Amino acid sequence: MPASPHTATGNAESPQPALRPLTIVLANPRGFCAGVERAIEIVERALEKYGAPVYVRHEIVHNRFVVESLEAKGAIFVEELSEVPENVPVIFSAHGVPKSVPAEAVRRDLFYLDATCPLVSKVHREAERHYRLGNKVILIGHDGHPEVIGTMGQLPEDAMVLVQNVEEAENIAIEDPDRVAFITQTTLSVDDTVEIIAALKRRFPNIMGPKKEDICYATTNRQEAVKAVAAGADAVIVVGAPNSSNSQRLVEVARNLGCSKAMLVQRAADLDWAVLEDVRRLGITAGASAPEILVEEIIAALQNHFDITIERPDGATENVFFKLPKILTREAEAS
Known about the structure:
Elements: E1 20-26, H1 34-50, E2 54-57, H2 64-73, E3 75-78, E4 90-92, H3 100-107, E5 112-114, H4 118-132, E6 136-140, H5 146-152, E7 160-163, H6 166-171, E8 180-184, H7 190-203, H8 217-230, E9 235-239, H9 245-256, E10 262-265, E11 281-286, H10 292-303, E12 306-311, H11 330-334
Helix pairs in contact: 8-9
């Protein structure tokens, strides 16, 4: 019996529903900074020159994708030098280490490479300079962060004190209020740090500080960029790791601008589609230790759910470059 013209035969395909429009605003700049690029390249060059395994004390940068990529090439990540066997190279992470760590490496006759970001090393030198001048050093930073542990480990135990917020700045006790200086962690919130410094300057009018702020250029630029995209966005995605200080600060900056749907996302698989259901304008940025490939992965996932338009506003131009350790460049120069 022939099918009625009003009866579905099952052969015709149902039309696909139109995807909802979504405008993505990509923060500029975002992602890797010069210190992160240098640290990763040190591990890669060391693997090429010395062969696997190469040991790395602590995550070279705070990003699991980066760490796992280097592990696949032969890097082995450990938390302490006691886990490093004899006769293998060991690399110190970009966050910096206490002086006790290279001292222990020398004692054990371990060959080591220091991938500490040069801007972190600058803070270390500032701490030493203030200490030589007889000042009590105040470090503005987050307790337990590897960079803070490394910076505090540059001086004797009682020579530096940590301040994490305005309340602590208002209540800190300094024996000689005229002999005090401050330094800061490089990955802090610029806005929060200004308030803490202001509190310290009110309490200690003669306090000494860095000639140029310690918060690194990349942290500052990425926070300004996320402000630009968060102002008109319904939501902001920060690509980065939970243990990445600079990535966490980007989420805070976006929320402080009134974007309540600011979220930290490691990979596309972590996207919360329910949160994005009513979003029409989405800002995306990435912390300084997050590679651009993860941003591209998230955009590709969004394309499967939305009809996307991408805006790329102008931002600060970054042309900073940090040299590699000479021992890793001689071979390249000779070839």
